[in-house]
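Inverse folding, one chain.
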């Protein structure tokens, strides 16, 4: 008698092939090479070196904390190398979906705001803005000026190459899940409980998104005294980007669970929901962690309202990502 597991095994073996062609190897190489400057810089800092760190930098005030943070970030960027291999090698097609989905969602969420904000900061600076084109928390003194284009340039190359590889991988492995249009999704893809969760996520997104846009527009209410005094165009761009991703996350997930407008492509709504929810959840988590660390400069401690906004951003992103995961699961079952 034929074993009932053989068809599944045969299907797995047949699926575990990567389309030939030069594009994927080139993108894999770009992603890996783009990691090297950041990994090398972090390795120097973890080992006690000060390459790129000027005298008087706030990074030197808390050596133990910075060593731990640098070690974690070094491992996180090294994981990009593993992801690049996973997305381009036959064994990567056999990895369980959830083992790949969360790291890719997190990587997308951490890199997408940088890919968006850093070029915008440079443009604003060229147009006469008050910033210097260096995304992130207050940093005076912080790092030598050459560090930012090297690091953020590498992140942008990583994001473009890894994002393209993941899109190609998803098309090969799960193309049926995000094919078609919203009106063709089964009714169970957006049940009452899921709709309620999506609406709750959209409502929760309103508060932090509104604060982000108000701060980006020049309102200093809710900011600590020191941060309000040092607020410049760089921070305004970051806040505007954060608010935009929150709005996009809420809107795209609502469209998915409501299955409207019927003519919108599923892949468009899912792609926006993936990137935007990851950006809100992971960037909100990062900002919350930074806000809870010891302040590097007196008077520039994040206010309670700022920490609440960061936490709300994080919670909203994870809630909307959960809604997206349910839609993907139900869509996969029906497909």
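Residues assigned per position:
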């Amino acid at each position: 008698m034929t074993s009932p597991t053989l068809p599944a095994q045969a299907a797995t073996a047949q699926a575990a092939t990567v389309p030939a062609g030069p594009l994927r190897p080139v993108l894999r190489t770009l992603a890996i090479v783009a990691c090297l400057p950041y990994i090398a810089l972090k390795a120097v800092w973890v080992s006690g070196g000060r390459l790129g760190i000027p005298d008087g930098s706030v990074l030197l005030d808390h050596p133990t904390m910075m060593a731990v943070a640098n070690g974690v970030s070094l491992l996180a960027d090294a994981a990009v190398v593993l992801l690049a291999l996973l997305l381009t090698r036959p064994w990567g097609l056999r990895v369980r979906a959830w083992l790949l989905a969360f790291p890719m969602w997190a990587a997308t969420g951490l890199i997408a705001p940088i890919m968006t904000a850093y070029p915008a900061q440079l443009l604003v600076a060229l147009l006469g803005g008050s910033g210097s084109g260096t995304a992130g928390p207050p940093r005076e003194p912080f790092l030598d000026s050459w560090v930012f284009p090297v690091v953020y340039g590498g992140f942008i190359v990583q994001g473009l190459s890894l994002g393209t590889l993941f899109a190609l991988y998803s098309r090969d492995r799960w193309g049926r899940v995000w094919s078609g249009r919203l009106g063709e999704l089964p009714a169970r893809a957006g049940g009452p409980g899921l709709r309620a969760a999506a609406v709750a996520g959209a409502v929760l997104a309103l508060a932090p998104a509104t604060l982000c846009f108000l701060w980006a527009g020049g309102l200093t209410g809710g900011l600590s005294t020191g941060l309000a005094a040092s607020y410049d165009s760089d921070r305004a761009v970051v806040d505007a980007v954060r608010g935009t991703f929150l709005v996009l996350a809420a809107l795209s997930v609502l469209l998915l669970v409501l299955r409207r407008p019927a003519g919108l492509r599923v892949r468009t709504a899912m792609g926006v929901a993936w990137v935007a929810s990851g950006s809100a959840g992971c960037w909100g988590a990062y900002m919350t962690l930074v806000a809870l660390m010891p302040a590097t400069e007196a008077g520039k401690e994040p206010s309670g309202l700022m920490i609440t906004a960061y936490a709300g951003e994080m919670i909203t992103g994870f809630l909307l990502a959960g809604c997206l995961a349910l839609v993907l699961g139900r869509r996969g079952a029906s497909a």
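The CA atoms of residues 138 and 230 lie 8 Å apart. The chain has ten helices and no strands.
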